[in-house]
Amino acid sequence: MKNGKKPTKRQKLIMKSQGLDPACWLVVKNLGSSIEVVSKIALKKGGKARTRILNIE
Asked: Is the separation of the CB atoms in 4 and 15 below 8 Å?
C-alpha cells in the first residue's frame, strides 16, 4: 500500500459531506471522479488496511 497524504481543503470538504472526520483519514489516491481514503487507525493496527472510495459529485 502506498503512503497516505494529508487531505487538502477541498478534499476535507468532500469528506465532511460524506460524513467522515478528515482528521482521521488520509488520501491514498486522488482520481478525477473519486478519492480513495484510508483510516489512520487501521494503519496503526497493522495488517491490511481497507480503503474507502468517495465519489465526487
From this structure: no
- Where are the domains positioned within the chain? 9-52
The residue behind cell 481497507 is 50
Residues 20, 29: Cα–Cα separation, whole Å: 16
**pLDDT: which is higher, 29 or 50:** 29
Count of Cβ atoms closer than 10 Å to residue 19 Cβ: 7
Q: pLDDT of 11-43, one tens digit each?
A: 999 999 999 999 999 999 999 899 999 998 888
- Angle among Cα 18, 22, 24 to the nearest 5 degrees reads 115
